[in-house]
Every structure is written in structure tokens, then in C-alpha cells.
Amino acid sequence: MTRTLQKLTHGVALFTALFSLCLIAAAQSSDPALQRLEREVARLGKASGGVTGATAIHLETGRRVTLNGADRFPMASSYKVPIAVQLLTLVDQGKVRLDQMIELKASDLHPGSGTLTGLFNKPGVALSVRNLMELMLLISDNSATDICLRLAGGADAVTIRMKELGLNGITVSRPTIGLISDWLGLSEADWSSEELKYKRTLNDEERKAAAKKFDADSRDTSTPEAMAELLSKIYRKEILKRESAALLYDIMRRCQTGDARLKGILPAGTEVAHKTGTIGGTTNDVGIITLPDNAGHVAIAVFIKSSEKEMAQRERVIAEIARAVHDFFLFHPTATGH
Question: If phi over 0 gives left and psi between -120 and 50 gives alpha, with beta otherwise, what is residue 196?
């Protein structure tokens, strides 16, 4: 009975969401200014040297623009946002505590770790779940991430939670060590936590083939539309208890990576709660921009994949898209007619 009720509730929520999207789409078709913004986002995205995807939603009015919004992109470390959502869901359910202490083991040391590296060789060192989640989101520590993913019930549990929320465009499949190993064309068994390096390497041709295969892999991917919707739900406190949603937003607001991306050319002091992602030809930033003068908030996801351009160029594209979106919704806080 409970299972049937859950399915019915999910169906009603999905229908309501689809109906709302239809209404918004009808309104947007008669807004030439919004159409112009969408064309500008597409123009800016061409400079990435790869494939650019972007979705931006003005949270107060529901208006949105999108570029390749239904296409899948590797999330890289931006997948730490859905991981955090699932972990906090378990906190809300009383299955995990934020003050729960987790002992660090040498075997948990994975590629892409910073702060935690020096702690793993100290017997008995433990960190709280909250500390680990902050390290995952603030500085994108991969060892902290893989511990958080384990505490969240694993990758499948995160994907199931996303589907329950109607976000079928988000798939979490591997811990970071698996994701990085696959990108390198290696296996998790090739990583040495004692030596802090992979025990073997591939030649350039093999590496390029592995990277190309990685870009085409549907695992650990998201559509821009699904990620922007997840950010919207976090901001509106629809999927977590208020205190958990507020904690997640606050941690993302203090993110220490990606200053040249969404925040890159926004006016000084603009608040952006965000999470970056980077691996190979993939460069991402997803977050919520607070507009000045009570003009509202924008949930935005910008993904770039398969790019051979320098990092600075990719980041500039993300920054320019964010600025175009910021300025549009600041000066057009309501829909405009013909």
C-alpha cells in the first residue's frame, strides 16, 4: 500500500512538473528578449572548443534558457551535489548523523586528495560526516567524496534518489577513483594508496582513446536541464529538511574552487553557491546566482565536454554565459512581450 502511494505521489508530481513546463514554454515562445538570450548563450558556447550545454532558470518566474539541455555531459566533480543530496536525505531520515565520526583508513586515500592526504597515516584519526561533506564540496577532496558516497549508500542509491525526484537526467555510477581510473584507461587496482600514484601508465595514443571513450560514457553524467532542476529544488527546500537544505546551500556558497567560472566576470560581491567539475576535456560549474536589487535568483548549470582548448578559454566561456544570464534576468525580472 505504501509503495503504491509512493508511486502515485511520484506520478502526480511528475505530471504537475510537466504541466508547469508546458505553461512556461508557451510563455517563453512569446518573449523575444528571452529568445535573444538563448541565441546569445548558443553563440558564446561555440568558443569552448568542444560541446557546450547550459540551462539557466530564473527561480522567481520559472523562465529558462537552454543550450543542448537534454544532452548528457560528464559531471566530473559536480556530481558531488547529488551525492550530498542523498547523504543529507539519510541524515533527515535519522540513518546517518552529521556529527557521526568516521575513521580514516589508508585504503581510503584516493587520487585527487589534498587536505586529507597527511591524515591517513595517523592511526585513529577520524572526521565527522559534516567535515567530510564540507571537504567534498568546498575543496572537492576525492577521498572525502568516496567516503561520503559510501555513507550515502553507494552510487545506485544516489541515482535512485534522483529518479524519485523526477531527475532521470542525472546518473551517478562510480566513486571518484573509478571515474578517474576509467578516464586514464586504467583500473582501480592500478592505484597505490601507499605510493599515492598509479602503478602503470599508458602511451599518448592509448590515453586519447580512453579519454574519447570516457566522453561517450553515459555513466556519471547529467543533462544541463536535470542539474538546473536539482539546484532549483535545493534552493526551494523541496527535497530536504529546511536545516539540511540551508547547510548544503551554505557549503556551496563557500566553495573554494572555480573563481574564473560562474563567478569569473560577475560584479564583485555577487553571491554564487556552486560546485565545479573538471576532468580532461570536461569543464563544468553549476550553482545558484543571487541577483542584486531583489531581482531574484538563477539556477544555472554550464557543462563543456570534449574540448581541446586551454582551460582558461573554457572557463571564460562559462563566465561569459553566466554574465549574460545574470544581466538579462537583472534587467528583465519579468517576462517581456512583443
Answer: left
